Amino acid sequence: MSKSTNIQNCVITNNIRKLRFNTDEMTQQELADKTGVTRQTIVAIESGKYFPSLELAFRMANTFNVPLGEVFKATFE
Questions:
Q1: Minimal CA–CA distance to 16: which of 36, 54, 53, 44?
Q2: Burial class (CB in 10 A: 0-12, 13-18, 19+), 16
């Protein structure tokens, strides 16, 4: 039997700032350039004001060379 979860109770967090720091102190602009978005988009994602598309989330994980789950985490309350 599968368990269904109400998506409205989902909290998504990210480790982008930490990953940038651990990747030769990558700037937001460098991450933006590597993933094909603007620095403002990175700022909004990093601060939790905007959630990236699945494609961008995977590009970010690929840029950091880590699994997607190390960049973003979903917690259901």
A1: 44
A2: buried
Residues facing residue 66 across a β-bridge: none
pTM assigned to the model: 0.85
Q: What is the pLDDT of residue 8?
A: 77
Contact 13, 76 (CB under 8 A): no
CATH topology of domain 7-76: 434 Repressor (Amino-terminal Domain) (1.10.260)
pLDDT, tens digit, for every residue of 24-55? 999 999 999 999 999 999 999 999 999 999 99
Burial class for 42, CB neighbours closer than 10 Å (0-12, 13-18, 19+): buried
Residue ranges per domain, the chain? 7-76
